[in-house]
Automatic annotation (TrEMBL), chain A:
<dbReference type="GO" id="GO:0009314">
    <property type="term" value="P:response to radiation"/>
</dbReference>
<dbReference type="GO" id="GO:0044778">
    <property type="term" value="P:meiotic DNA integrity checkpoint signaling"/>
</dbReference>
<dbReference type="InterPro" id="IPR016580">
    <property type="entry name" value="HUS1"/>
</dbReference>
<dbReference type="GO" id="GO:0005829">
    <property type="term" value="C:cytosol"/>
</dbReference>
<dbReference type="InterPro" id="IPR007150">
    <property type="entry name" value="HUS1/Mec3"/>
</dbReference>
<dbReference type="GO" id="GO:0000723">
    <property type="term" value="P:telomere maintenance"/>
</dbReference>
<keyword id="KW-0539">Nucleus</keyword>
<dbReference type="GO" id="GO:0005730">
    <property type="term" value="C:nucleolus"/>
</dbReference>
<protein>
    <recommendedName>
        <fullName>Checkpoint protein</fullName>
    </recommendedName>
</protein>
Automatic annotation (TrEMBL), chain B:
<dbReference type="GO" id="GO:0071479">
    <property type="term" value="P:cellular response to ionizing radiation"/>
</dbReference>
<dbReference type="InterPro" id="IPR046938">
    <property type="entry name" value="DNA_clamp_sf"/>
</dbReference>
<dbReference type="GO" id="GO:0031573">
    <property type="term" value="P:mitotic intra-S DNA damage checkpoint signaling"/>
</dbReference>
<feature type="region of interest" description="Disordered">
    <location>
        <begin position="339"/>
        <end position="385"/>
    </location>
</feature>
<dbReference type="Pfam" id="PF04139">
    <property type="entry name" value="Rad9"/>
</dbReference>
<comment type="similarity">
    <text>Belongs to the rad9 family.</text>
</comment>
<feature type="compositionally biased region" description="Polar residues">
    <location>
        <begin position="356"/>
        <end position="368"/>
    </location>
</feature>
<feature type="compositionally biased region" description="Polar residues">
    <location>
        <begin position="303"/>
        <end position="315"/>
    </location>
</feature>
<feature type="compositionally biased region" description="Polar residues">
    <location>
        <begin position="284"/>
        <end position="295"/>
    </location>
</feature>
Length: 329, 385
């Protein structure tokens, strides 16, 4: 299987701040060669000669991308990868299929790439949206753990693919080249509006989360009792996780967690800090979210909108993750 | 009758004998659900053939592998008065759990004894563990003559020898539900990749490939540039075993359609996994028979079992047949259908489509007819007396 299309393989040296010779791990988002007119991967049906282009070199720290892709693979089976000049996003929109859960993960492009060049569908719409199976990407990147060089290209073989090209160091002098072609779906522009950054809701209570590992083990045990979980918190640093059935009631209390500073002065005066705001959620959705957090984040905030939605806002070093779980109706 | 013993673990020995034996069984379990125990003067052979007859595994442990190896034939009182071997077929379900927890075997077992008595159709496996504990397993066996594939490895044009670690890294690339992989070789490099067919059909599976240079191989001989496709599951089975023995794996193969062999040759044992490969059928639009097969592939058939009843002969005459696009070439006038076992590849559904229009060769077990006459393809016959 050769590389499809007349791929422009040359690396344009548009490095930022000097990618030095010591760049041992480098990845290149190569050119995405669009199809000849009429091939129809742009489902709008128009004859497009516009070819989105993406060229980037990953800074040493390819492992971070691997960690992010592992996390995404645990959080969402299928997700959308949105590529913009300054940011990359992994998106799960709140469709019925995901049970109303939505996710927004953001990476600053310059923290991961030493070279990055892309061209979207058009000048005004300088973005690329790809839908892919998350696990395919994380598996492909797993091979790159000891890579000497890593190239990622958008190609079109028989269908659009994200081609991950890895050069591995081997015991002998020759290096081994590994290639993975991950099938992707290019999302047409008319669907982009559903994939925008969700608005952060006006929360009733905002609280810092406890150590996620502890929270996860508590929730795992509760899951055996009931699927209906009540999350409640107040502005005094108290967070409770409650399960109520006919037979038993189990509550885990977390205290002295701390609350992030409130946005407005008026709000803090009006609310009684002891008053709890609660939301009822499906415990399995919370468990899936917690399962995706392999390491404890740099920052973790939980925002509750009474009886509506719970919003988790995490920061893993330089990757931000927002996860929304709707309340049970 | 068979009696042999292995030491469980010897700290100084490079091998942990029971472990290797257990790993052999685990590897063979990937081939099929049945295991033949076939002792002879050459040693104890463990054999397994899958139901489609597209994969065969045999691990032969030489007598020096065992602390004590005793094998004798019992003379059966029957009309022909011939020597009969132990025709012992075990279910994998019975024997695999015994050798499953190899880590605990390593820690606890000091000695292992395996013996049989053909009069009561049982194989007895005894573990002599620490603290004086003795664990005995009685496994019933079925009387069944083992199948054997004779494959002239040395006649293959392409021979590669590689450390199992490198192959394991290649295998790591693929997901566990990958059915088939393709090995493509040229004198410059070797590429292991996802089978083309799968990635073309499905838009959701990842296509992966890895190029390995010639200097990573212990032995590299490429006589003909070729691409062969075979079943991934069986390759993984072989890999499990090779990791236990730390010996390099030899790969012998030729053109697509001809079986390939994965082997390990060591002082103490010899392992051979013979796998069928997909035969490449070029599309010939003009020929009506091949139309339905155009761009489809057929799997070459590996083993024919040909036994003679009437004589209690343990050997099987084995041949391999390539199923060609024109089915009528498969049958020469002298061949009788009843003599040939059906060699359908029943794994991949694509194969079933391909076989749709060929004349089906019916399944048959033992027949009393003579040996099959010449078939158009390569044929090796060997009889063991």
């Amino acid at each position: 299987m050769g590389q499809g299309g007349a791929a422009v393989r040359a690396l344009v040296p548009c490095s930022r701040g000097g990618a030095g010779a010591a760049d041992t791990t480098s990845a290149v988002f190569g050119a995405f060669q669009g199809q000849t007119a009429g091939h129809g991967y742009f489902p709008t049906g128009k004859l497009h000669r516009v070819e989105p282009v993406l060229r980037a070199k990953l800074a040493p720290g390819t492992l971070d991308v691997l960690r992010v892709s592992n996390m995404i693979a645990k959080l969402a089976k299928t997700c959308t990868l949105r590529i913009r000049p300054d940011k990359l996003n992994f998106i799960l929109a709140d469709k019925v299929a995901s049970g109303g859960v939505s996710m927004w993960c953001e990476l600053e492009q310059e923290n991961f790439f030493s070279e990055f060049q892309m061209e979207g569908v058009s000048a005004e719409n300088n973005e690329i949206y790809l839908e892919l199976t998350s696990e395919n990407l994380s598996r492909a990147l797993k091979t790159a753990q000891n890579a000497r060089a890593l190239k990622i290209k958008l190609t079109n073989k028989h269908f659009p693919c994200l081609t991950v090209s890895i050069e591995l160091l081997s015991v002998s002098s020759s290096s081994r080249i590994v290639t993975h072609d991950i099938p992707v779906k290019v999302i047409p522009r008319k669907l982009w509006k559903d994939l925008q950054e969700p608005a952060v809701p006006d929360s009733d209570v905002s609280i810092y989360l406890p150590v996620l590992k502890t929270m996860k083990s508590v929730v795992e045990k509760m899951r055996n009792i009931s699927n209906h979980l009540i999350i409640e918190a107040n502005l005094n640093g108290d967070l409770n996780l409650k399960i109520e059935t006919e037979v038993v009631c189990v509550t885990t209390h977390f205290k002295d967690l701390g609350n992030p500073p409130l946005a407005s002065e008026n709000a803090s005066q009006a609310r009684n800090p002891e008053q709890m705001a609660e939301v009822h959620v499906d415990i399995r959705k919370l468990l899936q979210f917690l399962a995706g957090q392999q390491v404890n984040p740099t920052k973790a905030v939980c925002n509750i909108v009474r009886n509506k939605i719970v919003h988790f806002d995490l920061l893993h070093e330089d990757v931000s993750l927002q996860y929304f779980i709707p309340a049970l109706s | 009758m068979l009696k042999c013993g292995m030491s469980g673990s010897q700290v100084k020995a490079p091998f942990f004998f029971s472990i290797v034996f257990g790993k052999a069984i685990q590897a063979l379990s990937r081939v099929s659900d049945e295991l033949w125990l076939d002792p002879s003067e050459k040693g104890l052979a463990l054999r397994s053939v899958n139901s489609c007859r597209s994969a065969y595994g045999c691990v032969l442990f030489s007598p020096v592998f065992f602390q004590h190896y005793q094998w004798s034939t019992s003379v059966k009182m029957n009309d022909s008065d011939t020597i009969s071997n132990l025709n012992c077929k075990l279910g994998m379900k019975s024997i695999l759990p015994i050798f499953k927890c190899l880590n605990s075997l390593e820690r606890n077992v000091e000695n292992c004894k395996i013996f049989t008595r053909s009069d009561n159709c049982k194989v007895v496996i005894q573990f002599f563990c620490r603290h004086g504990i003795k664990r005995t397993h009685n496994v019933c066996f079925q009387e069944s003559q083992p199948l054997q594939v004779i494959f002239e490895k040395s006649m293959c044009s392409n021979i590669l020898m590689i450390q199992p670690r490198v192959l394991a890294e290649a295998v790591f690339l693929f997901t566990s539900n990958q059915e088939e992989v393709t090995l493509a070789v040229t004198p410059q490099n070797v590429c292991i990749k996802s089978s083309n067919e799968e990635s073309m059909d499905s838009t959701s599976s990842v296509y992966s490939e890895m190029f390995v240079g010639p200097d990573e191989f212990d032995f590299f001989q490429i006589g003909v540039d070729t691409e062969i496709t075979f079943c991934f599951k069986e390759l993984k089975g072989m890999l499990i075993f090779s990791e236990a023995t730390h010996a390099p794996i030899s790969i012998h193969f030729d053109f697509p359609g001809k079986p390939m062999a994965l082997s390990i040759d060591d002082m103490l044992l010899e392992a051979n996994f013979i796998l069928a490969t997909l035969a490449d059928e070029p599309s010939r639009a003009s020929s009506p028979q091949s139309l339905c097969l155009s761009q489809k592939r057929t799997r070459s058939d590996l083993i024919r079992s040909n036994s003679k009843t009437g004589k209690n002969v343990t050997s099987k005459a084995l041949e391999h047949i390539s199923r060609k696009a024109a089915p009528k070439r498969l049958m020469t006038p002298n061949e009788t259908l009843t003599n040939i076992s059906a060699l359908e590849s029943c794994g991949s559904p694509k194969m079933k489509r391909a076989n749709g229009d060929t004349s089906e060769v019916p399944e048959s077990s033992v027949s009393g007819t003579e040996e099959v006459p010449e078939s158009p393809s390569l044929r090796k016959v060997k009889e063991k007396r």
